[in-house]
Amino acid sequence: MEINKIYKIDCIEGMQKLEDNSIDLIFADPPYNLQLRDELYRPNQSKVDAVNDDWDQFDSFEHYDNFSKKWLKECKRILKTTGSIWVIGSYHNIFRIGKIMQDLGFWILNDIIWVKTNPMPNFKGTRFNNAHETLIWASKNEKAKPTFHYKTMKVVNDDKQMRSDWYLPICIGSERLTINGKKIHSTQKPEALLYRVIISSSNEEDLVLDPFMGTGTTAAVAKKLNRKFIGFEVEEKYLATANERLSSIKAISSNLLDYKVERKPPKIPFGTLVENEYIKAGEELYSKDMMYSAIVKANGSLEYNNNQGSIHKISALILQKNANNGWTYWFVKRNDNLVSIDTIRREFAEKYLGYLNSDLDKQKIEKNTKKLSDFI
């Protein structure tokens, strides 16, 4: 199937056309099966435009469960082991969805609570104000290693861990798509919600699938964030709106999307820096406060008070700990300044491996790291 396209087709039939292990990220906003019985009115007797569409109607829980099993089974087949799936729902369906996902072998990573900062009131006053929806975030199985930009999300949250409760408004104002003042889709999701989902759990050029595309929010945000997308939608009015919406969207420049903060340090032993004389045998390494120092040996070990060991072992000994990261503990003098040995390691990696040069990803770095033997 062509990418960057929304197909007018049932989602199960559409996913059956996709290859195994071909999708990096799935966002699914399936029917909620709200089971609404009566029309709802505001105190002023105006009618509430509730979710009463035909696509949300199911004869029974059994009918809904069978439908859910079919589309989720296809999702599991096409999802990569480095990918993940997000499913959003309300109390009407999310618990049934969660059970089915676990029965199929998905591994639940988190449940995210989308707290609506401007929820619709409970007009009847017979229940608590329903002010949230739940997103299940899961990987293909327990051993899978899904993409997750932890550090990026921490930066988004002012250098604090991103929590599992997300306070975001419902889709209103100019973002809400309407015709003659009437909303086109009853459950249109805000772009801010999809922004967090996509930027946290996918990379540029990854392929994002939305089996229930609706008016195209997932595709719109994926396109902005320079991801590829595929979507399925059977309602003609939603499909037309989504395509019109996509036609005006431009991708954010790639240099503004680069996750440098997520890049892991290159796997280079301290001894490699000694062998290549980036740090010389006989030099002293210092703690940041310069209270402690150790001599660098020719074999890459350190000597401290008649103790000899790795940069990690000696730093742990000084700190009276079982283990410690020597790369962040030790510094070396350069032009009357203290420079972290981790900085020296990165300089070496940049020169010999191209590390930190813009176009090298983790796989290329690791591949090139194996070639160190060519010059050490």
Task: Give an overview in words.
This protein folds into two domains: 256 residues, 3-Layer(aba) Sandwich (Rossmann fold), CATH 3.40.50; 105 residues, no CATH class. It is elongated and about 80 Å long. The C terminus is likely disordered. The protein has twelve helices and 16 strands. It starts with a strand and ends in a 7-residue tail after the last helix. α2 crosses α3 and α5 crosses α6. With 376 residues, it is α/β, with parallel strands linked by helices. Helix content is 30%, strand content 20%. Strands 1-10-9-2-3-5-4-6 form an eight-stranded mixed beta sheet, with helices on both faces. The protein has a six-stranded antiparallel beta sheet with strand order 14-13-12-11-15-16. It has a two-stranded antiparallel sheet with strand order 7-8. β7 and β8 form a beta hairpin.
Largest sheet: 8 strands, mixed
The total tally of domains equals 2
Shape: elongated
* String of helices and strands: EHEHEHEEHEEEHEHEHHEEEEHHEEHH
Total strand segments: 16
CATH secondary-structure class of the largest domain: Alpha Beta
Strands of the widest sheet, in order across it, are 1-10-9-2-3-5-4-6
Instruction: Give the termini separation.
Output: 48 Å
Estimate the helix proportion, in percent. Answer: 25-40%
